[in-house]
Design brief:
Elements lengths: L13 H25 L1 H4 L9 H33 L32 E2 L2 E3 L2 H12 L9 E6 L8 E7 L4 H7 L4 H11 L3 E6 L7 E9 L2 E9 L3 E7 L5 H15 L2
Antiparallel strand pairs: 1-2, 2-3, 3-4, 4-8, 5-6, 6-7, 7-8
Helix pairs in contact: 1-3
């Protein structure tokens, strides 16, 4: 989980949506050009020997009108399909919180992230215990600059049961820049790809808006549950050491997030 971000094509971006629209319109344009080229001789009938040129002219006009009508139908169909395909997701920085709850500030205002000393049955490890489990978790790897971590014990044995990593625009300007160019869906796609997670599922994000998603990943020979939350200014990654069903993991992540937001 320390490698939280990887690059991939953002299929939710405005540029991707515009590319989809352009592709639809180009296909329609090629179809129209071929239609007119392939029907050129058919649209210009010749007058047979002894025939009436006026009848030939009327037939030519009739055929031309038919092709014009088909062209209009292709153009209208392409326009409708192009409009339907243009559906970019807002950038993460554009997301807004829901109605204030839990004493939260007004929706849309800047927030502070403070990892709680405890939530539910989890207790934040500190001192030598925290240093020990961090060494075990990172195994010599380095976290992205500006990442804050918390290691939580659930059963009182001072061993790790939950890990949380948080990046926030509050202390890292790079986060704000990233969120101005990526959607939450793309952030989740990057995260779960890096975590080699499967069955990623979105859940209700709670009062702070944005998104929450959870999936399963294999660590140290066993299956664990990984979750992520994202909003306009923060991105949090959670790993529960014990395999937990996704709905329960999402609720734990939501509780932690609500407790950490100020």
């Amino acid at each position: 989980m320390p490698g939280m971000i990887v690059a991939s094509v953002d299929t939710t971006s405005q540029s991707f949506a515009l590319g989809q629209v352009t592709g639809v319109l180009l296909v329609a344009l090629v179809g129209i050009v071929l239609l007119w080229r392939l029907t050129g001789s058919w649209r210009s009938p010749s007058t047979p020997a002894g025939g009436d040129p006026a009848l030939t002219l009327r037939e030519e006009r009739k055929r031309r009108l038919l092709i014009v009508g088909v062209t209009v139908l292709i153009a209208v169909g392409a326009g409708v399909k192009a409009a339907a395909s243009y559906n970019p997701e807002p950038r993460a920085s554009e997301t807004r919180a829901a109605a204030p709850a839990f004493g939260a500030a007004e929706a849309g205002t800047a927030r502070t992230v403070v990892l709680p000393d405890s939530f539910e049955d989890f207790r934040l490890l500190t001192g030598e215990a925290a240093e020990r489990v961090e060494t075990e978790v990172l195994a010599g790897r380095k976290l992205p600059e500006g990442t804050k971590t918390g290691y939580y014990d659930e059963d009182g044995d001072e061993n790790i049961d939950l890990v949380v990593l948080v990046r926030s625009a509050e202390w890292d300007p790079k986060v704000r820049e990233e969120k101005a160019t990526k959607s939450i869906s793309q952030e989740f796609r990057n995260f779960f790809t890096a975590a080699k997670a499967r069955d990623a599922t979105r859940f209700a994000p709670g009062p702070y808006g944005g998104g929450i998603s959870c999936g399963f990943a294999d660590y140290f020979g066993g299956t664990q549950t990984v979750c992520a939350w994202s909003d306009a200014t923060t991105f949090g990654a959670v790993r529960l050491v014990r395999e937990t069903n996704l709905a329960d993991a999402a609720q734990t992540t939501l509780t932690l997030r609500n407790a950490a937001m100020r």
